[in-house]
Amino acid sequence: MNAKQVIESLSSKAKGILTDPDRLSSLIQKVKAKLEKETHVSMDTVADDCKTGLNLLRAYAKNQYKDVPWKTLVSLVAAFIYFINPFDVIPDFIPIKGLIDDATVLLFVFSSVKLDLEKFKSNDEKTKR
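Now predict its structure.
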């Protein structure tokens, strides 16, 4: 199963999470906790985009940022569902390889929503000034 197939298989669950603020908040917290726990090099390459994606989802959930395509939201949530699932294609308990598949899925999604993440970051920086 490639990264695109993984995201497509999780999109229905992702849509359900996006329509439930409590479930979305729970997902954000789980991803944040796993990111803080994982210090492997493969995760370093995606950590900044993960944080941006989480901030975007948090702002979306709080109605602070809505200028994002639904497909981008679904893709981000699907990738984060995959990331927190310890028993995905390559289980997380397998040293190194278990995180590399997570990083691969995340990198695929981040590259496909790159412009939306950049737009959000730009907007977020403007509102902080």
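The longest helix spans residues 21-37.
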